[in-house]
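Researcher: Good morning. I'm working through a list of sequences from a screen, and I'd like to move beyond sequence-only analysis. For each chain I'm collecting a predicted structure so we can compare shapes side by side. This is the next one on the list. No need for commentary yet; just the structure.
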Amino acid sequence: MNQPVRTSKSVAAVFVGGIALGAFAMVGVMKGGVVTPAVAAQSFKARTIGSINVESMTELRNLDTSIANLADFVGPAVVDIQSSSGRQTGPNGERVPAMGGEGSGFIVRPDGYIVTNDHVVGGFDKVKVILKDGREFEGKVTRAQDSDIAIVKIDAKDLPTLSFANSDKVRPGQMSMAVGAPFGLTNSVTVGHVSALGREQQIEGRLYPTLIQTDTSINMGNSGGPLVNIDGQVIGVNTAIYSPTGVSSGIGFAIPSNQAKLIADTLVSKGKITRSMLGLRPVNLKDYERAEKKLAGGAVVDFVVPDGSASAAGIKVGDVIVKIGATPILSELDLRNAMLMYAPGTTVPVEVVRGGVHKTLSVALKAYVAPKPESTFQGAPQQQFGVPKGFNVPPQFLNPFGGQSGDDNDVAPTTPKDGKAHLGVQVGTVNDELRAAYHIPSGVSGAVVATVVPGSIAESLGLQPGDVITAFGGAKISNAEDLTKAVQATKVGTSSQLSFSRYSENGITKGEITVTFK
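Model: Good morning. Structure tokens for this chain:
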């Protein structure tokens, strides 16, 4: 039956009529008169939700209580971390304003050892730790920059702690809880699930080879805090989010607990990380490859560094490494972690499977050397961000100040005020080296993001290193020069559409976002 369309006038009439009827009902009650059922106050009785029976309601209450109890257990061991640095002088003599940030961490030893992300505390002059009970301590930082894990030591004792779970036992679909300080809102609790395992991401120059993906809400400020299972054990260290908007989109990432524990234990016992290098790039065996090769696991050699240790020992692309010394290798993470167990200069037996045949080769390990940043713009601000070889960095994309916090009198703007549009990325043209580094398929062209400048428009939109920008402002982008020209032609105050693709071993993610240049 078609309903009549009500005009604003008819709606007003109904609204007024409702008021009059209500007033009438109230008058009837007050005068003790007889009130018709249509306007009489009705009595209500408690009832269960929908068709939930008593037993189901009891189970639901028990679940609710269990989650709250879990939060009560985890919360006291989670800390708020505030990092800051005073004014400094930049590479060109310019004044750099006071910098600051806020993140999370969790206590792993009662004598004041705290695990967090390196990007929460690394490079700052002062680190303050605030416990849930309100006590504040100055923290001493020990860093593992490449692994994005750090230890903060405070002078305290008898503190509540969290223990690590075995992240190899974590399964997609399990419930998870995050506790931390998103946007500075301390002691915030969110609940969700483990969405996936083994996610590889390259974020701000760091390689994260095997992250846990979760839909547990994680935002800026959650970094360094724990992702726990229903037993209150840490399964991961909350580290990053995928977000076109800068806030949680239901895709968060955590460093697995086994990796975090190994790094943390090494930092506590040795005070630093000493990493050796095989001189190769490992990748995980796919499920079908394990079945075909009849292997429980291993790390496939995807690339061998010329004149490196592996090359000298006879290791070849396609070899599956299954053991280093006495350490079984079931994944690429196992291989990377094995490089923490053997000192540079050590010769170790490496067992590989080649053509179904097991071979043991002796490899003389070398000291790990991080790739050196190179740039076509010598002396430009982008050098501090570690630009990989082969990237052409248009100066108009740069924002060396990047959203730092400071006092009201000397705060660098989030974008340079030169009247030009600034995207805030450093880019290069797709080539063979970049295809290998970022899993970019043959035939794909565009401008590859090398680094996203902190505080830039690009960072707020969620762009990441390795993203291939394929279109901007309705124009196709085939190389870095195309993007440079397109951004140069854009005026401040206007908006443009940007299309990009993100590749990994697990597939491709495509996105289209609106870029507003303010």
